[in-house]
Write a structure and sequence with these properties.
alpha/beta; Rossmann fold; 8-stranded mixed sheet; two-stranded antiparallel ribbon; 14 strands
Length: 428
């Protein structure tokens, strides 16, 4: 459309109906002015802008998701080994490693190393590891996997020799292999081998001893008559208990970094640890406030591994013939205690607050197993007061699925459910 400007006959205005028009007036042209765009054009531009923003968000989301999947697939290739263990982090390893990679540490402190699966994974991922646990068998595992100066093949002859030893009646057969009417952790043919091999291992020292003890414990774990711990035994022999125990070479990690192994109470070492990232998986106990705090994991559940490592032939008690030093009055841990203090706070929460405050690392990955809403509420407050919560990963073991990532304190609502585990990435 073309239009004429009305003037004094000295000029003509030209317009397209939607663009710019100029009109002649008094022999001159006014400044060019844009015409107001229609409402339809504004709505179209708004929709295009919103779509572009949404598309960018979707692309960023899928890029982050795809990158995370790639990292977890890469970490899934890492192989660890260990005994059957309540609270094992085997299924969580890819997610622990992904969180660690986000903060790019050089040195990682594993404060409650247990079976050392997480320490093994950190070492294989290229980090320098400081492993610590109060249990002697955890120290033996860590020395075997992290500190061996020689490759696996170096120990072939040792393992073959131990496997060739004939069985003999010793302390373990006397207490855990005799037919006295009590349920047993192993059948007699395997306790005889255990006695013979453990007697021979006592002649070893250094790395050879750690490797041999680790191999022995792994072998006995494969032929046991338990549901995964040694506080009680099955009434009927398990199928695996009939097999003959046989030692195999542990998967020793090639020494690339100068790893460190400690055996100490966490509060005796935490303030002196120089690392970039700390990983904490305390031995959480039952949330039953009537239950003794020590009836969990280290002291009671795995007393036989302690006896194998120390070979101290301790005094025993009870039908399960536990070590006397694992009784309820001697082996309590603050992290296993879900009772309340005089200030009406949970003992375990106060211990966690103390631990997080004394930790010197820049970042912390904390593992937490659901133990009831009240504990989760208090722990959430402790985490918020200790630093910035960067990310939360939730696992539902009952459904055997990995839940969505929780970016705020909303994880507390999910902690009401049983069989839940959370990983917190905290920046101090």
């Amino acid at each position: 459309m073309r239009g004429a400007g009305v003037g004094d006959g000295l000029g003509e205005g030209v317009g397209d109906g939607v663009g710019v028009c100029a009109r002649a007036s008094n022999g001159s042209f006014d400044a060019m002015r844009p015409a107001a765009p229609s409402a339809g054009r504004l709505l179209t531009k708004f929709r295009l802008a919103m779509f572009a923003s949404f598309a960018r968000g979707v692309l960023v989301f899928f890029f982050i998701w795809f990158w995370g999947q790639m990292q977890m697939e890469m970490h899934a290739e890492i192989t660890t080994e260990g005994i059957k263990y309540a609270g094992s982090k085997l299924k969580l390893l890819p997610h622990i490693l992904r969180l660690a990679q986000k903060v790019q540490p050089l040195t990682v402190f594993d404060g409650f190393s247990g079976t050392t699966r997480v320490s093994q994974a950190f070492a294989q991922a290229g980090y320098r590891v400081i492993a610590n646990d109060i249990a002697v068998w955890s120290k033996v595992f860590a020395e075997c996997y992290l500190l061996s100066p020689r490759p696996r093949e170096h120990y072939n002859d040792l393992i073959d020799h131990l496997n060739s030893l004939p069985g003999r009646h010793g302390w373990f057969t006397e207490h855990y292999g005799n037919s006295d009417g009590l349920k047993k952790p192993w059948q007699r043919h395997n306790t005889l081998k255990l006695d013979a091999i453990r007697e021979k291992i006592e002649q070893l020292s250094g790395h050879e001893k750690s490797v041999a003890l680790t191999s022995l414990i792994l072998a006995m774990d494969e032929v046991d008559n338990t549901i995964g711990h040694y506080a009680s035994y099955l009434s009927e022999w398990s199928p695996r208990s009939y097999r003959e125990m046989k030692l195999r070479l542990p998967r020793i990690i090639p020494t690339i970094k100068e790893h460190v192994v400690n055996q100490a109470d966490i509060f005796d070492v935490v303030s002196a640890i120089d690392a970039d990232l700390a990983y904490y998986d305390p031995p959480y106990g039952s949330n039953n406030d009537k239950m003794p705090p020590s009836r969990v994991r280290y002291a009671s559940y795995y007393h036989l591994w302690t006896s194998i490592c120390l070979f101290d032939k301790p005094d025993l008690f009870g039908k399960a013939k536990r070590r006397a030093d694992t009784s309820d009055t001697l082996s309590a841990s603050v992290f296993e205690d879900f009772r309340r203090t005089d200030t009406d706070r949970f003992v375990v929460v106060e211990a966690m607050e103390r631990l997080l405050k004394q930790t010197r690392t820049k970042h912390i990955i904390l593992s937490y197993s659901s133990g009831g809403r009240a504990t989760a509420d208090e722990l959430n407050d402790v985490i918020k007061s200790s630093g910035n919560l960067l990310e939360v990963v939730e696992v539902d073991y009952q459904r055997n699925v990995m839940g969505g990532m929780r970016w705020t304190h909303e994880w507390v609502r999910d902690a009401e459910g049983k069989n839940r585990e959370f990983l917190f990435l905290i920046e101090k």
